Amino acid sequence: xxxxxxxxxxxxxxxxxxxxxxxxxxxxxxxxxxxxxxxxxxxxxxxxxxxxxxxxxxxxxxxxxxxxxxxxxxxxxxxxxxxxxxxxxxxxxxxxxxxxxxxxxxxxxxxxxxxxxxxxxxxxxxxxxxxxxxxxxxxxxxxxxxxxxxxxxxxxxxxxxxxxxxxxxxxxxxxxxxxxxxxxx
Length: 185
Fold this sequence. Notes:
This is DUF6470 family protein. InterPro entries: DUF6470 (IPR045527). The protein is α+β, with helices and mostly antiparallel strands. The protein has helices at residues 56-61, 67-97, 105-114, and strands at 5-11, 14-20, 23-27, 32-36, 41-47, 50-54, 133-137, 140-146, 151-155, 160-164, 167-174, 177-183. Helices cover 25% and strands 39% of the residues.
């Protein structure tokens, strides 16, 4: 027995989609800024430093001094020499007053007075160390600063928006189709 056959041909539907993107445009002008600031006021007060150098002792060590200082020095040295001489003579007088106690006092005094002691040899620095006196008072600086706040004025601009909406279009390019054919044997 022969059975008829069915033959089917189908065609799918085809859809076309056209799309337009949405656009958003944003524009904004730069802000306008006006700024003003006065410079700071600066005041500087200075008391200058002071250096004092006292060379009186150094000049005295080198025998370079005023006549008044020289007179004072020589009078002091003379007074001291007179006092030492008076003390020596008083001492020698007491020794002579006690001659009865024995000893050769006159010969001892003659020996002391004829041979003075040897002078010591030493190195001295002229002027002597630290004879120059220094005194320094450092400078004083006072700084006063007065600042001024800035004045700022700003004008902002609002943004401007432009929107173009998007779109989607669909269309049928090809319809669906189904063909059925019967084939007889």
